[in-house]
Amino acid sequence: MILVTGGAGFIGANFVLDWLARHDEPVVNLDKLTYAGNLETLASLQGDARHVFVQGDIGDSALVARLLAEHRPRAVVHFAAESHVDRSIHGAEDFIQTNILGTFRLLEAVRAHWSSLDGADKSAFRFLHVSTDEVYGSLAPDAPAFTETHTYEPNSPYSASKAASDHLVRAWHHTHGLPVLTTNCSNNYGPFHFPEKLIPLMIVNALAGKPLPVYGDGMQVRDWLYVKDHCSAIRRVLEAGRLGETYNVGGWNEKPNIEIVHIVCALLDELRPRADGASYSTQITHVTDRPGHDRRYAIDARKLEAELGWKPAETFETGIRKTVQWYLEHPGWVANVQSGAYRQWVQAQYGAA
Fold first, then answer.
1. How many CA atoms does the CB half-sphere of 280 hold within 13 Å?
2. Considering the domain boundaries, does residue 16 fall inside one?
3. Mean of pLDDT over the chain
4. Domain span at residue 242?
5. Within a domain: 309
6. Does 341 map to a domain?
7. Beta-strand relationship, 254-256 and 221-226
8. Is residue 161 one of the residues assigned to a domain?
9. Residue 346's pLDDT band (cuts 50, 70, 90)
10. How far apart are CA 48 and CA 65, in angstroms?
11. pTM for the complete prediction?
């Protein structure tokens, strides 16, 4: 049995689905079901006894303690986090509460549980903390990619809150001996991505005939990681990672945002052409850049490859095609996730977009 936090969110839900497609080992899935948590993503697991879903907050110490005592998981995989930079700029408190205080309370509950274990169970236990490359700050255009020893220089309330959670995890290992592992990933994309993030927003807006809002000049560079590759990396780190170590997970796919948007438009032109024959790229609209927008992230994932033999299976070309096709094939999921609250957020963030 493993306990997954945030397992109804984008990456967490993909991890749960992949885990149960490959293992019979059950999953207890603890998720608060905020706006980005979506049980419909896990609909295929309905009635599957291997998946135990619990709606709750990682900051609820009594609930977490009860789940640990009842299910006695051999590992905790911690995805639960507020994760959207734009939202953190407009309202940082949720990020402080969940990412910092929530992680602290989770660590304390897990430490108490781990301390109660004996022998082999105690030795085998793991706490895997899933984090982001944004904790490292922004890279110059010609600077080497982030390694695990890069200085932390977070520039947004979101990345600052994740950096704090990374430091807490490290401290609980060095101070208390808690057997932890940390992964810092680059930008994920793929199925079930909430349509406030770049790639799904472009797909959804393009199909709806809406403007495709691109921040500033669109030359912000990101390293793109297909979500299922990220899930395979987490499984591998959980299986064989060295205790107390950090592993960077990247896709070796550095591309500027504007290029991503044009690639999405070209795929839609091929797979779902506009009725008027024009390219979806005519819908691209440049909007005011967000405050403190980091110009470049890039992950050096050689440590993960050298120590644990992991490499991404997808190129960006194969992964983005699969992603666009998935959104075209799942209009019901997209329609259902676009609640009134989501539409209000896009209106507030991008104006007429």
1. 26
2. yes
3. 93
4. 2-189+225-251+296-313
5. yes
6. no
7. antiparallel
8. yes
9. very low
10. 24
11. 0.93
